[in-house]
Amino acid sequence: MERKLFRILHISDLHLAEPESHKIDFLRKITDDDFDLIVLTGDVFENETGIPYIENILSRRPRLGAYAVLGNHDYYDYTMFNKTVGRMIRSFRQPKEKRDVEPFVQALQSGGFDVLRNESRCLKEHGLHIMGIDYPGIKEYELARLAAQAPEHHLKLAIFHLPRNLHYISNAGIQLAMGGHTHGGQVRIPGYGPLFTDSELGRHEASGLIRKGDTAFHISRGLGADPRSNIRFFCPPAATIIEVHHQMPRGV
């Protein structure tokens, strides 16, 4: 057997909007390292003023590429009414119309990211099969089809934004999945945990490495939030380096 090592930088929930110089400086420092992969799991932009920043966050191209998915803040322009009243009255939680995300996608591509919208990339020579789940999710049979495209013994990696229907990922035989959205709860009470996870995850699953079935999930606390509500309490922002050891038969 041959053991492959993948060194992955997981970043999420940048919520880029003007001005962002401090966040960009941090991202350029951490991406100036030797990674196999960089994955960006959604809520990249808060609004269009964040577009110029995305082209400058990668100091160095990772060996096997950088991959991104979109999140709810990429697709929707939330008002404070949505964020406050919407917590009490669910029908007001989501804006009625989607944004045109093509300018966001083009900016990400110009910045060196491959944007995956319910599609996959197979790196056969490296034994890696990457799937990207677009917001708000994917039908189970579609994800199973993407996973089935992986050659035998390849590491199957899924990236997503919203932790939703995570059993679809486990059922598809995906070994590793990475997501965001929760901000780790953003506000955590010592001894209790986050007040909200905004997902199907329990309080103890709001961030970090968790396991469901045979799949390991990493949920990022992210690096930002809506600038109007970017208050963190006992929940600092995070970018995470993950090292994955994967066994493959020699010659595959």
Tell me about this structure.
The chain is α/β, with parallel strands linked by helices and 252 residues long. The protein has a single domain (2-248), classed as Metallo-dependent phosphatases (Purple Acid Phosphatase, chain A, domain 2, 4-Layer Sandwich), CATH 3.60.21. It is 21% helix and 25% strand. It contains 7 helices and 13 strands. It has a 6-stranded mixed sheet. Strands 4-3-2-1-13 form a 5-stranded mixed sheet. A hairpin with a 2-residue loop joins strand 11 and strand 12 (215-219). The chain is globular and about 55 Å long. The N and C termini lie close together (10 Å).
Features:
5-stranded mixed β-sheet, 13 strands, 252 residues, alpha/beta, 6-stranded mixed β-sheet, 7 helices, 25% strand, Purple Acid Phosphatase, chain A, domain 2
Indicate the topology.
Layout: E1 2-11, H1 21-31, E2 37-41, H2 51-54, E3 66-69, H3 72-75, H4 80-88, H5 102-110, E4 113-115, E5 119-123, E6 128-132, H6 140-148, E7 155-159, H7 166-171, E8 176-179, E9 188-189, E10 193-194, E11 208-212, E12 215-219, E13 240-248
Parallel strand pairs: 1-2, 2-3, 3-4, 6-7, 7-8, 8-12
Antiparallel strand pairs: 1-13, 5-6, 9-10, 11-12
Radius of gyration: 18 Å
* Count of separate DSSP helical elements: 7
Gap between N and C termini, in Å? 10 Å
Q: The CATH topology is what?
A: Purple Acid Phosphatase, chain A, domain 2
Unreliable residue runs: none
Measured as a percent range, the helix fraction is 10-25%
Strand count, sense and barrel status of the largest sheet are:
6 strands, mixed
Number of strands: 13
Q: Helix/strand/pairing class, anyone? A: alpha/beta
Compressed to H and E, one letter per element, the order equals EHEHEHHHEEEHEHEEEEEE
The tally of structural domains comes to 1
Overall mean pLDDT stands at: 92
Overall, the morphology is globular
CATH class placement: Alpha Beta
State the strand order across the main sheet: 5-6-7-8-12-11
- The percentage of residues in β strands lies in 25-35%
